[in-house]
Amino acid sequence: MGVSMSKTGSGSEHVDDLVAKTADALEDGKYPLSITHDEAIYQAERERIFSNMWCFVGHVSEFEEPGDYARRYIGEDPFIIVRDERGELHAFLDLCLHRGAQFCTAESGNTSHFRCPYHGWTYKNDGTLQGAPHMREAYCDLDTDDVTLEEATLESYQGLLFARMAEEGPSLEEYLGEFTWYLDVLFGLTEGGMTVVGEPHRWESDHDWKTSSESFAGDSYHVLTTHQAGLETSLGKGPWSRIEDFPDASYLACTDKHSGGYYLLDDAETFMGYPEAVTENLDPDLSEAQRDLAGRSVFHVGTVFPNMSYIHGIQSAGWGGPWLGIRVWQPRGPGKVEVINWWLVPEELADDEEFKHESHRGWESLSPGGAFEADDLVVWNGITDSCKSTMIDRRETLGNMQLGLDGMSEGVETVDDPVHGPAEVTTKGLYFDERHSRVWYGAWQSAMEEYRGDPR
Amino acid sequence: MNHLVTAESAVEPTRHHEIEQFLYHEAALLDDFEMEAWLELVSEDVELKVPIRRDRGPGSDASPFSDETYYLRNDYDMLRERVDKLSKEYAWSENPRSRIRHHIGNVRVTEPTEDEYEVRNNQLVYRSQGDTADHKLLSAERKSSLEAVDGTYRITDRTVYLDHSILSTKNVTLPLL
């Protein structure tokens, strides 16, 4: 192997070689473990994946008033998400067009203008240049129409804000495809929709963004081992206690890129343990099948490719009520991630302090302070550390995601029932079908191949 | 927040010394993972909170700490369960156990009502885990309410105000607080 093929190589040849090997390995339900932690792969992901995919940047309820802004990232590019004075939402690159300086010094706030701290160029919150110090004498011949902040395309679906850096590409709805059916159930459950409460958890972890994004796409199999301590102490309260057999109650739904799994009961009035404020205000736009899925639901977990995941359901660790958490696995360099974890409740319950007290307990359990996630992070950090290995590059060591392949796992079968929506859904899927991993790495491989010629 | 301890609200030196010793004793229990013994220092109506530190824009008059969202907001029953969980083999968050060291200082004690003490302290908590030279530091101000009972103290309320808007530790376990 030449230098460009090595782990420490930075050439696109090395990347393209690994991407091609991923395509081959996927045919057997495997993937090169080497892609997990690799400098060149990481840089290529920024250029090929994060520059082209729709990436989650926040929720509309965070930006209710004109001037409300937050700093969010697409890949490692810093963006300001802001509602302008006319009510339009934007995603501006946090970069002054004079000399590239940065405006944002905080995570969030409210402002009518962005003033550059370097030479004072000042922009309105719609991205147009308002002026600069001594404007009339200093800039006699500046075409100010040309000076508009770099902007990513911003679209929303069920209150979820996604931005795309590439100027061309599919619309958000096309990108989400059939997965919108499930997002309707999870984020458009009630007429009022979901609303963010308070500030998100934020923490850094030494693991690769791919590992957690793919795990959240539908891996309950790890719960048996990683979370055994949590299971021994606390599982089995509320609707969870009515599940007789966890694998039997679990399903996995995958589209071309996005996956989610869920636990269902037969009782169509389960509604993840939500009180009447939800069941009496269901969004009339939901179809009968979507209503049935919501009604039978105990718990949902999933990932919108590339790096947004969610959990929606009754608390799994025994404490607390139903909750919805959205999280982003924000890449922060090879083998490093910042996690942002939002808590949302149905608008109808936004002022119900008793409900929120219980719901917070659920949300908190999947956080760095929580009984469950604290254990995941240790495991993921270990994966990232070991996958730095040069030996796995040399030996082309493959990871295994063969659960649920033909003849591999008992009881994993495609189910055909309107309640499961348009995606391909398997029984026992959340436990014994790693199709979510195959779909996830399939989407990764396709994007890495499709955008390989992407100009820097 | 007014941190000034005035002559009227400060406690007697003996009391102050006693409460400092209590904090050191508690810290040693946490450092040594003596979680059952630690739990005995905690009142059954306790609430332990770690609020999220916000990072709002300049000029914002909002409190730097969220009053709605917390990394951890536990009552006694939840603490009981957490302590149980930490003793399990599969509690990977603390298996292997972290090497933890509390450094406690700037202890300020007031007595707003008789036999109830409001205690603030600064703390730097060192944590290193696994076979590595790496370590993390958690810096915080801690506010505790203590009640004097049976010649010792019980923690009736506790808030840990972290100096981190983005946590640098991968998880937050009880002995780190």
Topology of helices and strands:
The complex is a heterodimer of chains A (about 450) and B (about 180).
Chain A: H1 12-26, E1 30-32, H2 39-50, E2 55-59, E3 68-74, E4 77-83, E5 89-93, E6 108-110, E7 113-115, E8 122-124, E9 129-131, H3 135-138, E10 151-157, E11 160-164, H4 172-176, H5 180-187, E12 194-196, E13 201-205, H6 209-216, H7 223-226, H8 228-234, H9 246-249, E14 250-254, E15 259-264, H10 276-279, H11 288-296, E16 297-304, E17 308-313, E18 323-331, E19 337-346, H12 353-365, H13 373-386, H14 391-394, E20 398-400, E21 424-427, H15 429-432, H16 435-450
Antiparallel strand pairs in A: 1-20, 2-11, 3-4, 3-6, 4-5, 5-10, 7-8, 8-9, 10-11, 12-19, 13-19, 14-15, 14-21, 15-16, 16-17, 17-18, 18-19
Helix pairs in contact in A: 1-16, 2-16, 5-11
Chain B: H1 13-31, H2 35-39, E1 47-53, E2 65-75, H3 76-86, E3 99-113, E4 116-128, E5 136-149, E6 152-162
Parallel strand pairs in B: 1-6
Antiparallel strand pairs in B: 1-2, 3-4, 4-5, 5-6
